[in-house]
Design goal:
- The chain has 410 residues and is of the alpha+beta class.
- The protein has 15 helices and 11 strands.
- The strands form 2 sheets. The chain has a 6-stranded mixed beta sheet, with helices on both faces. A 5-stranded mixed beta sheet has the order 7-11-8-10-9, sandwiched between helices.
- It comes from Pontibacter saemangeumensis.
- Belongs to the peptidase M16 family.
Length: 410
């Protein structure tokens, strides 16, 4: 990717900006190196609850004023929580970037967690849980984390549990922030047509009085994995299955080759091996895909499909057959070339989204203190050999290391 600008304020907050001249929209957000894996055992779900509560009142705004501030000028304000990150972000016309920056700063640093709003939002999150539990294709993927990571914090559901969400009070949010919020572990990132000088001037205006906060928080690394097979009966009409295992961490040199292997196996292309073998050839599924998530100390491979209960065993067998092919049969030169071209094209198209680009830049700097250019990534992809992929498949796709989670109709 072309150049970006980065500046560290005296309080440790980093400002990252990429100027894109051909857009009228300013995308920006605070990306914090805090996620659900940073919760203590009695705090399960509080990171996600905080994300909700940030919109419910600050020292100078009530909920309505927060929600109306950007919506009234056609902008969008949103947030998300993952295992390792919380992000508050917005998209507005460039002329409203000042408003956006000020509001994002307000909800990120000056939330007051009104007790009345906590009670209301508790109900919203419990409804979110119910909706998610009624969607087995989503619920099973999240529950698979607990199968692989067991009692490790990465195994906890980001939403928490009904019990934990039902007991959170104002002091719990304050305690969580006190333990985890550190100004040198968060970034304000923006992508717009504005010059960096203007962004930096606003950063000094709105963030200059934020005190420096330094925390020595250490994340518990994941180290012990025992493959499991779990089957749960549910009041559903279709069987759902997720299988997978731990994979390479974010900093591992095998990450990009493995990502290419997973993309070949079950990426978004309709020509993925799993889609061709299971859907197109046998008509056993509507959806089948493979995904690879990376964390600072581990990763996770997941393969998901839904099928008729009576076809569950056969479909699983076909998936395992495709994994075996990757372990035993090296890609031919044309197959390897096609896999590389497909992945490079997908990555290039993903960078066309300025919102996605903004988040990618911020996350990359938080995790790796750098942003790899598209050309650098392409160079790594071009250097991958069929032998590399075969070795990685035999290391990471061993059948005896796979875990399984099945939802079957009761």
């Amino acid at each position: 990717m072309p150049d970006y600008h980065i500046h560290t304020l005296p309080n440790g907050i980093r400002i990252v900006h990429k100027q894109v001249l051909h857009t009228k929209i300013a995308h920006s957000g605070f990306i914090l190196d805090i996620g659900s894996r940073d919760e203590l055992p009695n705090q399960t779900g509080i990171a996600h609850f905080w994300e909700h509560m940030a919109f419910k009142g600050t020292e100078k705004r009530k909920s309505f004023h927060i929600l109306n501030r950007l919506e009234s000028v056609g902008g969008e304000l949103n947030a998300y929580t993952t295992k390792e990150k919380i992000c508050f972000y917005s998209s507005v016309l460039d002329k409203h970037f000042d408003k956006s920056f000020e509001l994002l700063t307000d909800i990120t640093f000056r939330s007051v967690f009104p007790e009345r709003e906590i009670e209301k939002e508790r109900g919203v999150i419990l409804e979110e849980m119910s909706m998610y539990l009624d969607t087995p294709e989503e619920a099973i993927v999240d529950e698979f984390d607990a199968v692989v990571y067991d009692t490790h914090p990465l195994g906890s559901n980001i939403l928490g549990t009904k019990e934990s969400v039902s007991r959170f009070e104002k002091q719990d949010f304050l305690d969580f922030l006190t333990r985890n919020l550190s100004t040198d572990s968060l970034i304000f990132c923006s992508v717009s047509n504005l010059p960096f000088e203007k962004v930096l001037k606003l950063a000094e205006k709105y963030l200059g009085d934020i005190p420096e906060i330094k925390k020595q928080r250490e994340r518990v690394p994941f180290s012990t994995y025992i493959p499991k097979s779990v089957t749960i009966e549910k009041p559903i009409s279709q069987a759902h299955c997720v299988l997978g295992c731990p994979a390479y961490a974010l900093s591992d040199d095998r990450r990009i080759p493995f990502f290419m292997l997973v993309n070949l196996l079950g990426g978004p292309g309709m020509n993925s091996r799993l889609n061709l073998a299971v859907r197109e050839k046998h008509g056993l599924v509507y959806t089948i895909d493979a995904n690879y998530a990376t964390y600072i100390d581990t990763g996770l491979l997941t393969i998901y499909f839904g099928t008729e209960k009576k076809q569950l065993k056969r479909t699983t067998s076909l998936v395992l057959k495709e994994l075996k092919k990757l372990r035993e049969v090296p890609l031919g030169s044309l197959q390897l070339h096609t896999a590389k071209e497909q992945l490079m094209g997908q990555l290039a198209m993903a960078e066309e989204s300025n919102m996605g680009l903004m988040m990618m830049i911020g996350k990359s700097i938080l995790d790796q203190d750098r942003v790899d250019s598209l050309n650098e990534i392409f160079g790594q992809i071009k250097n991958i050999t069929a032998t590399d992929l075969l070795d990685i498949a035999n290391d990471a796709l061993r059948e005896d290391q796979l875990s399984f989670l099945n939802y079957v109709p009761a």
